[in-house]
Amino acid sequence: MSFLTDPLAFEFFQRALVAALLVGVLCPIVGSYVVLRGMAFLGDALAHIILPGVVIAFLLGIPLVVGALVMGIVTAFAIGALSERNVLREDSAIGVIFAGAFALGIALLSATDGYAVDLAHFLFGNLLGVTTSDLWAMGVLSFIVLTVIVLLFKELQLVSFDPLLARTLRLPVRALDYLLLLLIAVTIVVALQVVGVALMLAMLITPAAAASLFTRRLLPMMLWGAVIGASSGAIGLYASFYLNIASGPAVVLVATLIFGLVYLFAPERGLISRRMASA
C-alpha cells in the first residue's frame, strides 16, 4: 500500500492526481462524439490552433486558460463558418488554420527566453506543475461541459448518429454542430495542462475508441471511456512519479496500452474473439 500512499504525501502529487482524473473523465465523454462523427483531425487541429492564445496569455502574464479559451472559442466558430459557407472543404479549411495558427504560436514563443523549456511545457503538458487555481479553472470548465452534455444529450446524440433525421425533426443542427465544436475546444483547454498540445488528441480519442469496442451505444461508451481515461490518468501519473518520466506522455502511453489490450481481448469485437468466432 505504501506504493500508492507515499506519493500522496506531496501536495503537488495530490493536485496532479485530481487533474488527471478530471481530464481522464471529461476527455473520453466529449471524445465519444469525436469518434462517432469521425472528427479526429478536427480535434487535433483545435488543440494545435489554441497554442497562439496560450502563448499570448503567457507573454501578457495572464492565466493561460484565458488565452486558450478565447482562442478556442474563436477557432471553433471560424472553422464552422468556413465549412458552412462552402468556401473550402472542411478539412482544407481546418488544415489552413491549423498550420498558420500553430506556426504563429511557435514564432511568438521563440521570441521569449527559455524557448525550449516553454515549448516543451506547452507541447507535452506539465501535470506535476498544476496549481490550485488551475484545478479550480479545470473543475468549473469541466462542470459546464458535462452539464451541457447532460441537458442536450438526446439532441447531440441524434445529430451525431442521424443528422438527416435531426433536420426532419427541425432540430437546430447547425447550432448543435457549433456547440459541439465549442465543447471540444473547452475540453482541450481543460486538458492542456495535463497532456499538452501535441498529445491532446490521444486523450480525446484513445479511451473513447477503446470504449467503442465494448459497446455501440453512446451512454455506455461514454461511461466506459471515462473509466479507461481516469485509470490511464492515475496509472500514468504514478508511472511518471516512480519512473521519472514526463507525466503527459506517461498518461498517453498507459491509455494506448489499455486500448491495445481491449483491441485484443474485448468480448465479441476484440481481435481474438473475432478470430475464434470466424474459426
Percentage beta strand: under 5%
Distance between the termini: 44 Å
Radius of gyration: 19 Å
Continuous helix count: 15
- Biggest sheet overview: none
Instruction: Please state the average pLDDT score.
Output: 84
Judging by the overall fold, what is the CATH architecture?
Answer: Orthogonal Bundle
Unreliable residue stretches = none
The strand count comes to 0
CATH topology heading: ABC transporter involved in vitamin B12 uptake, BtuC
Work out the count of structural domains: 1
Gross morphology: globular
Q: Please write the string of helix (H) and strand (E) elements.
A: HHHHHHHHHHHHHHH
Describe it.
This protein has 279 residues and is mostly helical. Helices cover 81% and strands 0% of the residues. The chain is built from 15 helices and no strands. The longest helix is centred in the N-terminal third of the chain and has 26 residues, at 11-36. The protein starts with a helix and ends with a helix. The relative contact order is 0.16. The mean pLDDT is 84.
